TrEMBL record, chains A, B, C, D:
It comes from Lignipirellula cremea. Residues 141-278 form the GFO/IDH/MocA-like oxidoreductase domain. Keywords: Oxidoreductase. PANTHER family: BCDNA.GH03377. InterPro entries: Gfo/Idh/MocA-like_OxRdtase_N, Gfo/Idh/MocA_oxidrdct_glycsds, GFO_IDH_MocA-like_dom, NAD(P)-bd_dom_sf. The keyword Oxidoreductase applies. Residues 5-129 form the Gfo/Idh/MocA-like oxidoreductase N-terminal domain. Its EC number is 1.1.1.292. One of its GO terms (molecular function) is nucleotide binding. The gene is afr_1. It comes from the Bacteria. The keyword Oxidoreductase applies. This is 1,5-anhydro-D-fructose reductase. Gene3D superfamilies: Dihydrodipicolinate Reductase, domain 2, NAD(P)-binding Rossmann-like Domain.
Length: 378, 378, 378, 378
């Protein structure tokens, strides 16, 4: 029988649902020695918390996360709060000896992130950050192809994360469900929300960055704040683009925005190597595009790999070839790998320490944009 | 609190998993007055049944489906057996007053199907057949666009279901996990397995057929039978194509095969109307292609509709715009609609009676191929 | 210096322009021992003929094709008239010892086609039919890949030719520029106009057919005749679909229509072989899609081959890799190959005799549709 | 009768062919009051010049471009030489009172370009630069849609020009056919060769730029020089990326490289506006992608506009809907517009003065990359 892993979840918004679904499904498809048990949900609003807990089968509800951390029946804490609460909760959880699964980005800035890393490492608790896109099978496959050396020397890396949901000036900032538009809660706009994903993948696939050069823009300067009803200055970045040099000598170009009409969640990346290139996008997440110069010249062209065969990463655990999975499955895979890590003792990545590297780039990008100059990454 | 709907599942193969997953997920995303409870699993092999039941949380295991039907704590029976058992189980279940959810195709032939329809109608039990593709959101959207009259008079309907998994002569026929290659268990080859899906969708979207004209082929004439180890004649159709006239005057062209190299499960359809056309395929199941002649001529072209917005069918219950769902969700939707039907009293389609129409076409197609002539559908 | 090949062109409609452009361009890109000289244009309407001749540089104009055939300074006659004139002109041209380039389809029916073949063969004159799609580089590449044996045993061939220009009931039939809608001038509707192209390619790529089974439809039964202004019965087929068995054991499925909203000239074909599959379409004529099961399974997928590299058929004579050519270039290639055939003595295909095979299929298809039964091809 | 426009072409490389083809074809498809006459070809190598002239029908050959400028029978001079000769020839041609059609980029730098502008304006001669991509019909259509205001306020512009032909370290630099790899002849690498195209289109579609911030890279530092056989330092930029602010407040992101495996000539751009977005790429040059938020939400998606209908820019002069044209046609259109400008007196764009704006951006980009800082464009 699988050992129970008792989960205490803090927060119940979009990510609360995505994680709960992953915990509920994982043992049906990825047998492991551990199986998640939804022990407690923590929500400031007791009524809403109860409703969510009932729907998903959480056994109990807390309204104070400190109480949750005191409970002996909780093995792991899942932090799904706005970004400005990550640090305090994570450090306290580490001190309480809990495993920690923390939503991305790790922290509000590098200083916070370093404190968090120190705390988990000092406490020796298992930790992981929810950069889920690494575990979309097509992205995992990209990593595998790169690690096999198929691309050779890398020349270019480019990534975009394009959305369009804040184009209307009528969208308010801050408040219920809109904390991502409030710099006090989110730290930054698209940089921490979207580019952080692109950066995590890039560091994983292509290694560290040497320096960055960015520009940011806030297209709509003032919006009504939902909490107060007042029109105030928008404090987040609506769009952010940056150039960089990777340590391996390749050039990077990154862009994210919430003002790209026609794209809801179009995360894309492309890597050009000496022998082969790879591209992928989130709107067709089940396909990986691959070009190999070593193909016979008469049939050389981009392969559209429908990542559903049983020998593809994670896919042997799902249906049969040709049948697609979706966005939510990336979270299931991350939980599956987390559970496996408990068995093997090998950490599931990205750990807090891994995610701190992404934080460094984000901070560098924001600094570069503010100072209009190249910023070295240390 | 939602009312329990006690499920007794017969069979635990591929479809057993797909249905179990749907029952497990549906209440997390589609709140209804009823919620499925996995009461019992029925499997001839007790050990394997136990393993499956444990994984999915079935409360008990039966090895004789008749026993299952006798139990008072079972409200609904889900038939996931090979096709040759559908009739006997369904009729007994109807007589036992159970609701029935039956895998497709309904029966081995029209005669069986008629008996089944009579049985459920006489018993007055709720019944439904798992033609799940109707509830891929893009397909449901196609239905909605057609019903709004956007296409106008229909001229053409064409559909394919292309696979490639039996090209190798080394694939055995019959036996464990391979009953679809054995006519005694399956009734036919691609006709009942694949074309039946295409036909169900077509009848739903474009109405009934007047006549059909088909050809079938068995490319590899003999294969080793898994059960006996002997090389015997292959009795199923490897490929089947047919032309037809729909009652609305449009022309139909259908094809299915397991010998189309490069296509794992490529179900596609296209409908050409006077004003607009629609196409869809299962390999990119989250997109609907739509062409509208009424668009301004300068920007007229096929729309690639990424069916993820919250106003799309079923999508408001899942994630946020831009984030895809997959194959398995069509089953969740079907369960959700089934549960809703219990509340409204309006049947969830396709019922047995609906599925009998598909059976009539399948029988007509096989007859036409055998006799090399047009066959009228009555 | 290249030897002149004196051309006498009969007709000056759409195909007259396409051929004239090919003659004008060919020597700039495909040096041969012969070069076309636009000696004479033949048009019943002298004024229009003059205008066309001036624009394209024809040295003279004739209004009677018999006169053209009598001229000693004409080496080759290009027949671009409506189909019902092909036979008479071609036979007379053969008797006059002229080389003949005839538009497709070869004739109104097999009987005519046979007379034409006999005439050219008896006279020993060089002859060719303008099935131009063979020489779209992507299609020529398909032929090359098949001939190399890459596909292995062939299981399926399917082709469509979809247009939408006659959906409106207001389109008149017959008359100026509309002879394709008049059975007296065209012989048939989409069968001779569109399916003939699909059949020519299919016979070339996949060999002969054993039998066919077709249906045709005329969606709009009556239209105003342009010449008379009267509403009369439409005599052509608006749509035609057929199934067939190829001699190599593969199954074929063909369809053409002028009622497929959203498709202007969407000629497509797909071939599924044991090892590999190929598909192509005219709307993206510069790409060939290729799937090879022998590819490493991790990167196996459809290749989108952008047929512009210099080692692709004909492409070394044009621009540089990445830069596309268009529809008109297929005619240039056909002229280039025709000119080369004069040097080598090897006929440029399809000859009249080759095109007669396509005519046999067309006749069989129309007969099958009329009689609602399978028709053997002899 | 059309008036002759006597052309004297200087150079006979890739662009010499592209222009000659355009002159030869234009009057067959675009009737104008003027028609080009290929009067003289100028080539330093007399033998090769003769061969080219014979193939294309130039009436005479010169080996000294100064001689060509002295001839009274030349109306217009077409400069197809390496970039470092543009200035001297253009100024002399202006002084000789010739119309000038000059290949892009205009000059080696802004200083040269200004002298050239002054010369043609002082002389009052008609002048144009061959930024041909403006006249790919899909690109012209994009301009039309933007000018109609369909996109609303523009937020983002991004463009790439990706090639892969210099990845091999064995490609020599400089010399015959390779002057684009030699900074002395070309001025810069991808910046003047590829980015210049992207910039010209961007300025045309989206207006001027305020500032730029660039990085360049030379991946392979030394190559054999073809002329000398010696291994010397590579002086051009292999790759260049830059960020910018447009005057209209939108953000720009540009990249070009010759190290993007899998892309032969992939020029792409995308523009995101408040209401609508547009994208295009050169590998599928006959399609324009268009997304309009005002579309009915159920069918909202990217339109793939197959730019072949007769109401599309330039397309009414070619074939029929559905039939594509290619790369070379952009030059035909540019000549057609040039000829029309002679009739109307309205200049055909881009003029030298227009092209100087592109030169300013190129210079700013190279300066920014060298100094690693933002550079204002004046």
């Amino acid at each position: 029988m699988a050992k129970p892993l008792n989960i205490g979840m803090i927060g119940y918004g979009f990510m609360g649902r995505a994680h709960s679904n992953a915990y509920a499904k994982v043992s049906h498809f990825f047998p492991n020695t551990h199986t998640p048990v939804l022990k407690a949900l923590c929500a400031r609003n007791a009524e809403r918390g109860k409703e969510f807990a009932d729907k998903w089968g959480y056994e109990s509800v807390e309204t104070d996360w400190r109480k949750l951390l005191e409970r002996d029946d909780i093995d792991a804490v899942d932090i799904c709060t706005p970004n400005n609460l990550h640090k305090e909760i994570a450090i306290a959880a580490a001190q309480a000896g809990k495993m920690i699964l923390c939503e991305k980005p790790l922290a509000m800035d590098v200083a916070e992130g370093e404190q968090m890393c120190e705390a988990v490492e000092k406490a020796g608790v298992v930790n992981m950050v929810w950069y889920n896109y690494r575990r979309v099978p097509a992205v995992t496959l990209a990593k595998q192809l790169i690690d096999e050396g198929r691309l050779g020397r890398i020349f270019h890396y480019r990534a975009n994360f394009l959305q369009d949901w804040t184009i209307s000036a009528d969208v308010p900032q801050g408040g219920e469900g809109l904390w991502r538009l409030d710099a006090e809660a989110a730290g930054s706009g698209v940089t921490g929300d979207l580019l952080a994903h692109c950066i995590d993948t890039a560091l994983w696939l292509n290694g560290g960055m040497k320096d960055v050069n960015a520009m940011t823009e806030t297209f709509i300067k003032e919006r009504t704040h939902q909490a107060t009803g007042e029109v105030t200055k928008v404090t987040i970045d609506d769009a952010c683009a940056f150039m960089c040099h990777f340590n391996n000598g390749s050039l990077g170009l990154f862009e994210s925005t919430r003002y790209a009409r026609g794209h809801k969640a179009l995360y894309t990346f492309e890597i050009n190597g000496e022998h082969a290139s790879i591209s992928w996008d989130l709107h067709d997440l089940g396909r990986l595009n691959y070009f190999d110069h070593k193909d016979d010249s008469l049939v050389r062209g981009w392969h559209s790999v429908h990542v559903t065969d049983t020998d593809m990463p994670y896919m042997g655990n799902w249906w049969v070839p040709g049948l697609q999975i979706g966005y939510e499955h990336s979270f299931v895979h991350q939980v599956a790998d987390f559970l496996k890590s408990l068995e093997t003792g090998e950490p599931a990545h990205p750990t807090f320490r891994d995610a701190l590297e992404t934080q460094k780039i984000c901070d560098g990008v924001l600094k570069s944009a503010a100072e209009r100059k190249w910023v070295d990454i240390k």
